[in-house]
Design goal:
mainly alpha; about 65% helix; two-stranded antiparallel sheet
C-alpha cells in the first residue's frame, strides 16, 4: 500500500474541481498490487474485485460521453465549487446557451468572490455583446450595484455592455488571486478608452 501511494504522489495532477487525476500512471503500481493480491487472495475474492470494478466503470461511463457530461458531473460531485461552475459555464457558451453560461459564472462569483476566472468570463462575455436587456439575466442584474445598473441602462444604454464588462473586469483584477494581471489591465485600459469616447464616434477603418 505504501509503495502504491508513494508512486502515485510523484505524478499527482491537481485539476478541475479539486480532483486528483492520475489515470495515466496509476496502472503501473496497480499492476504490482494485482500481482501480489493474486498470489495470496482466494479465487472468490478476485472475482469480487473484478465485479465491483466493472460496476464502478459502468456507472461512470456517462461522465465521459462528452465535455458537457464531464463538467456537469464535476458540479454534481462538488456543488459549491466555483471552478466547476466556471468550467460548466464555458461549455454552455460553446453550445450557444449564453444565459446558462452567464448564470453559472455568476454563481461561481457568489460561491467565491475571490476567484477571478468567473469574473473575467463575465467581462469577456458582456464585452462582446451589444446593449444589454436586463430581463434576459435577472439572476445577475438583481445582484449588481444599483448605481451601476442605473447608469449603464438609463444614462448610457447603447454601451451598457461595456459598463458591465468594466465592472466585472475590475472585480477580476482586484480578486485575491489574479492569473493575468498585465493582460487584463491592458484590456481594462482599452475598455475605459472606449467608454470615454463620445457616442457616435466613427473609428477609421483599417485597410
Amino acid at each position: 500500500f505504501l509503495w502504491f501511494v508513494a508512486f502515485n504522489v510523484l505524478f499527482l495532477i491537481w485539476i478541475t474541481a479539486n480532483q486528483f487525476v492520475l489515470d495515466r500512471y496509476t496502472w503501473i503500481p496497480a499492476f504490482g498490487v494485482c500481482v501480489i493480491a493474486a498470489a495470496f487472495l482466494p479465487s472468490w475474492a478476485y472475482w469480487l474485485v473484478v465485479g465491483i470494478s466493472l460496476m464502478r466503470l459502468w456507472v461512470h461511463l456517462p461522465t465521459y460521453q462528452n465535455e458537457f457530461m464531464f463538467y456537469f458531473s464535476n458540479l454534481m460531485n462538488f456543488p459549491t465549487s466555483e471552478v466547476a461552475m466556471g468550467n460548466l459555464g464555458v461549455v454552455y457558451q460553446e453550445r450557444g446557451l449564453i444565459g446558462c453560461s452567464i448564470d453559472n459564472w455568476f454563481l461561481g462569483t457568489q460561491a467565491n468572490a475571490e476567484y477571478d476566472v468567473c469574473w473575467y468570463n463575465l467581462a469577456s462575455s458582456f464585452k462582446g455583446r451589444g446593449p444589454v436587456n436586463p430581463q434576459y439575466f435577472p439572476l445577475l442584474f438583481n445582484s449588481l450595484p444599483p448605481e451601476l445598473t442605473s447608469h449603464a441602462l438609463n444614462k448610457d444604454p447603447m454601451r451598457s455592455h461595456l459598463h458591465l464588462a468594466r465592472y466585472f473586469l475590475v472585480r477580476a483584477l482586484t480578486a485575491r488571486t489574479c492569473h493575468f494581471p498585465k493582460q487584463w489591465q491592458t484590456e481594462l485600459i482599452q475598455l475605459e478608452y472606449e467608454l470615454l469616447k463620445p457616442m457616435g464616434t466613427i473609428r477609421p477603418a483599417k485597410l
